[in-house]
Structures are given as structure tokens and as C-alpha cells.
């Protein structure tokens, strides 16, 4: 009985904290919840479903309502490592990166991306470029921004 009460108490506490942290509408959403270092996985929608571990740093700027996203992909050989830096607009609770704003410093290798916060500890995203499309999932690895 004590274990059930403890589990119920923990569940209620977690739900209350989520309701107080996450906004009711996207307009109230705090861009700074994205701030910090995250780690996760990239998965391609291509037939082979390539995937790789990915690390990311999200750096919001409240004055310009933009977020800089730096990602480092560490795939298993023979696939090469990959890194990118993109700047996205923050709209309706999502980070939107159009093709010209992605892969800064490269030519004709642009990608459209979108990221959203599922909860303070989980970011999901999608991407699409001339080669394929797929998804991202990141979990928070630091207390910064949490």
C-alpha cells in the first residue's frame, strides 16, 4: 500500500510540474526551454532507415526570436561524421529552419527542419532535403534550461 501511495504521489507531482512548466498555448511558450545540450538519434525515412547518434546545442535569442542549432552526428563507419549549424525562427512553439538558413557555409546542401518541445526533457524534429527526409529525437543532457 505504501508503494502505491508513493507512486501515486510521484505521478501527481510530475503532472503538476508539467502543467506549471508547459504553457497552455504556443504564444505563451518560453523559447528558453530549448536552451542547452541535448543528445539523441537521427533516423532517415529512406528505405535503408539509416540512423546515427546526434548531439545538439540549442541557443535561443529572445531579442530576435531565433534559435541557433548546432548538431554533431557520430555515425558508425563507413558513414562519415557530420556537423551543421542552422538558425531558425521560433514560431508557434516550434523552431522552423528553412533551407537557405541551414548548413551555413555550404552550397547546395540545404535542409528544411522543424523542432518542437514534447516536454522539458524531450525535443522531436523532422527534416527534409534533396537526398531524403527523416526524424530527430533529443533528450536533455544538462540542467541548463530545464
TrEMBL record:
Signal peptide (residue range): 1-26
Keywords: Signal
Protein origin, superkingdom: Bacteria
Keyword Signal set for record: yes
Name this protein carries in UniProt: Lipocalin-like domain-containing protein
Organism: Candidatus Sungbacteria bacterium RIFCSPLOWO2_12_FULL_41_11
Amino acid at each position: 500500500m505504501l508503494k502505491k501511495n508513493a507512486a501515486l504521489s510521484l505521478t501527481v507531482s510530475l503532472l503538476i510540474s508539467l502543467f506549471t512548466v508547459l504553457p497552455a498555448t504556443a504564444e505563451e511558450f518560453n523559447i528558453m526551454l530549448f536552451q542547452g545540450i541535448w543528445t539523441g538519434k537521427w533516423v532517415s525515412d529512406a528505405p535503408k532507415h539509416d540512423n546515427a547518434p546526434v548531439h545538439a546545442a540549442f541557443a535561443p535569442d529572445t531579442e530576435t526570436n531565433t534559435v541557433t542549432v548546432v548538431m554533431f552526428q557520430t555515425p558508425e563507419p563507413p558513414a562519415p561524421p557530420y556537423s551543421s549549424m542552422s538558425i531558425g525562427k521560433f514560431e508557434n512553439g516550434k523552431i522552423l529552419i528553412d533551407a537557405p538558413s541551414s548548413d551555413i557555409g555550404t552550397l547546395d546542401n540545404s535542409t528544411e527542419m522543424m523542432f518542437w518541445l514534447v516536454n522539458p526533457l524531450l525535443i522531436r524534429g523532422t527534416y527534409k532535403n534533396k537526398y531524403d527526409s527523416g526524424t530527430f529525437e533529443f533528450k536533455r543532457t544538462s540542467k541548463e534550461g530545464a
